[in-house]
Amino acid sequence: MAIELQQSRLAFSIVSSAARVRVCAPLGKCAGLGNLSRRNFSQAAEALEINEVEARPEVQVKDDKIISPRKFLLGKSEKELQDLCEEMGEKRFRGKQMYLLLYKVRKAEIQEFTNLSKGFREKLISEGWEVGRSPIHHKVNSVDGTIKVLLKLKDSRLIETVGIPADEENNRLTVCVSSQVGCPLRCAFCATGKGGFTRSLKPHEIIEQVLVMEEIFKQRVSNVVFMGMGEPMLNMASVLAAHRCLNEDIGIGQRMITISTVGVPNSIRKLAAHKLQSTLAVSLHAPNQRLREQIVPSAKSYPLDALMEDCKEYFSITGRRVSFEYTLLAGVNDSKELAFELGELLHHWDMSHHVNLIPYNPVADSLFQRPWQKSVQTFVETLAKCRVNASVRQTRGLDANAACGQLRNQFQKTPLEDESLVKSV
Ligand code: SF4
């Protein structure tokens, strides 16, 4: 069976035991996965994930000549760096030095690894190794302290990252990271979905988002949420690799990391098998299948009952309560009746949970409106009557194009070419 996601330029084929799935990794718009059947959705989703692992390595081009595949140090563990040094004829302790330079001293260029000999540095560079850091293309500061940046990746694509400091009482700094360039799932209210899908991020492209925020805020990042551009479950290999590095190498506790999803068939159980102590945040947005399909088109391929069953499994395996995200859209899903229905749904599935209510942050050309404060209040009170634990997420950075994908859409519809556009802070 061949599933064609209409795209151009970089095409590759993947042979699975069940079917041959041809995916054209998109560099422009994508048809999206929202309307595929459940089986095809799973296959396409798997293919998108394999894309991460099997796509041709990026190459460096100099004077129109390919000089070597690009390889990135960021994301490698101490042992992997030691192995690399050994393979290149160096002593293993050089790997420890590289580890410290990458994760403690935070050097962004191999030329700055002055603990290493000049010859070794040159050898690393000539073999295509880079640290794997990207320049800041644009930065927006919000009056509430939130900072959003666009990072310009090697292929001139832009990704959004948001740094959200807590109030003065605590020292928390949360970073909302992207896992893909764009997103193929096209949720009805989402600016990222409107902007189309390009590709999944590699581990270093996720990790560097955290490092850049530490540098901007001059403060350690305490919490990471995978809630930026993209669907993390469609890029699970990179998300897990970045999660390992953020936890073990950068020192962010697993419990301080949240992985969100709107739901991709078979992925929650796969994630649960890793027994992470991180929070699973499921974007529910509706308490019944009919309404959910209107807000999240990909829900057609993943019935609500199946999603809730998988969430329950995640809770049983990890012992971690599941967080349900519910974006409140005025007149669509913010009624008292739907709050009752949500309460019933959560009680029916009987797992430890928390509901995060997110009053919608309007994006350009959106059909949806921000709910009235009164509706939000009534929704919360109704959930409380149903004995459902809920909180309303404070909207941060409204003046900084806070909705996911909004800022990126302003700056990028096609790959950037003009280097003069790059700004630094
Ligand atoms: S809400 Fe998330 S999953 Fe849905 S289109 Fe936006 S980025 Fe993708």
TrEMBL record:
Q: Which Pfam families match?
A: Radical_SAM, RlmN_N
Entry keyword set: 4Fe-4S, Cytoplasm, Iron, Iron-sulfur, Metal-binding, Methyltransferase, rRNA processing, S-adenosyl-L-methionine, Transferase, tRNA processing
Give residue ranges for domain Radical SAM core: 169-399
Q: Quote a single Gene Ontology cellular component term.
A: cytoplasm
User: Does this entry carry the keyword Phosphoprotein?
Assistant: no
Subcellular location per the Swiss-Prot or TrEMBL entry: Cytoplasm
InterPro entries found in the cross-reference section:
Aldolase_TIM, Methyltransferase_A, RlmN_N, RNA_MTrfase_RlmN, rRNA_lsu_MTrfase_RlmN/Cfr, rSAM, rSAM_sf
Q: Which SUPFAM superfamilies match?
A: Radical SAM enzymes
Q: Which cofactor does it need?
A: [4Fe-4S] cluster
Protein name, per record: Radical SAM core domain-containing protein
